[in-house]
Amino acid sequence: MLPRCLLVLLLLASLSTQAQKKHTFEIKKGQFLYDGKPTQIHSGEMHYARVPQPYWRHRLKMMKALGLNTVATYVFWNYHNTAPGVWDFKTDSRNVAQFIKTAQQEGLFVILRPGPYACAEWEFGGYPWWLQKNKDLVIRANNQPFLDSCRVYINKLAAQVKGLQVSKGGPIIMTQVENEFGSYVDQRKDIPLEEHRKYNAAIKQQLTEAGFEGPFFTSDAAGLFEGGATPGALPTANGEGNVEALKTAVNQYHGGKGPYMVAEYYPGWLDHWGEPFVRVPTEQVTKQVETYLKNGVNFNFYMVHGGTNFGFTSGANYNKEHDIQPDITSYDYDALISEPGWATPKYTAVRALMQQYVKYRVPAVPAPLPVVTIPDIILNKTVELFDLKSGMQPIVSAQPLSFEELNQGHGYVLYSRRFAQSARGTLQVPGLRDYATVYVNGKRVGTLNRQQNKYELDVQIPANGTLELLVENMGRINYGAEIVHNTKGIIEPVTLGGAALTGDWQIYKLPFDKVPDLTRYATKNKAGRPTLYTASFEVKQPGDTFLDMRGWGKGIVFVNGHHLGRYWKIGPQQTLYVPGCWLKKGQNEVVILEQQNDTPQQALKTVDKPILDQLQSVKSATRPAP
């Protein structure tokens, strides 16, 4: 018998040889051909940025066990271009090349969606926030400064992944050109169609010049191919359930033939703070999937596994009722594989259906990862957020400055102004982006909220008093014409009683890009004042868990330095997912920024299941799911 170490070396050598074997994938005679053989794409969308790297393989195994043969993923430009001139393809979950290699090891093809625009309920649709600082740059347009920036991004990405295309022995079979551009063309009729088309063609050319080989595809609603389709790329129809409509649309823009693909079929839907959690019935999903399977339609579940908008990565929408609709932290999406990676009833039903139709072997479903609950975490130290000002040098300005003007992308900014004389009247902040807690002499007097279109508040300020506004960026809009108006903070003059408040604004930057050091601050906890809670807690055996934020107000949480995202009592989300791979056996640390602090907290609780559908306040209904 061979020694175990030699067997491992032989296995690794075998895997390496397989990975280096070159293949072909092409569109020919109206079909997808892999090594010359007709191949159906049964794909599921999963974004590596939304799943901790140690869990990638488990989620990919779940997809394989569902009966899928392909994983599709967006690449978020701003996730890798972390600051101007700074690129990161290694830390946290950023190693996109490793994700692609892991998918190949699990027997999955990869569809790459590099954008540069992604949408995806992700902050700014994937664009770096600082693009807006260049006044000559117009995003998503035939604009040279923007195209120059896109070229840098595309070349940086290509250096990481072009060697993983199918022709080089990798699993990447197709690459998307832009994303849902037909929707944007429809929303921006102020721009000539020819200019839109020049931009789309430029992106395709940049991808080609960077070393992406295709086949290329575009992804739009079937009725929007006129603006979204581009020569040399297969048009695919998002959300199209009618097979004949799909074929008619593709035929018109693809020489009268297929292949026919729905690049985004929605088995769930996105969710906003303050609006109901959207669910799509299992029966509706299985009926549609069977229609695709019976008719030879290629498809991609968007999402098959959503994951989580960790940190400040969640984006936002808007509609006629809300100036902004911030997305919740969970990206569960009512997908087939839930946020913590569990098989849902929808998963089980679709898996049974796939087994009836696919000709390849469908493996067994992997066991779920361990789940634990933790005894109540006693919050033994509290620090008032305003005390952090003592160690900071404020920026002094005649008027409030935006996040971008402050060279800050995310988090919070505290705007403070002293009044020599007493003042009273209606405080108006029409340029609020997005949520402000208002204080007079440290006492909270109200909130302003772009999600509820609330921009004014009556205030009374005594002589020698101080007005302060703690402003939160709740995520940049990621979809629609308003994506070009995405600066944050306070972006217009503030008025009191109709008079502009100018002069002597003191501005404190609170980006919360990392856990603050609270060791030198005194312990304080007063209701109504923004407060940082911190504690150590012991874990006997790490596993996934969920922080129960019911009873809390609004804020963010770090566990062992990992930013879990934001919570907000209005719901529908009431828990925060803590991946077990971020916990340690023994001592762990938690830090919570509680912005409202209506009721000072004594302990933090955990539960063994997520709570994503407990809405506390409904101002208007969300747009319907498909």
From TrEMBL:
Residues in Beta-galactosidase 1-like first all-beta domain copies: 400-510
Active site (UniProt): 180, 264
Pfam families in alphabetical order: BetaGal_ABD_1, BetaGal_gal-bd, Glyco_hydro_35
Enzyme class name: hydrolase
UniProt KW Signal keyword: yes
Family matches, as PROSITE patterns: GLYCOSYL_HYDROL_F35
Annotated protein name in UniProt: Beta-galactosidase
Biological classification of the source: Bacteria, Pseudomonadati, Bacteroidota, Cytophagia, Cytophagales
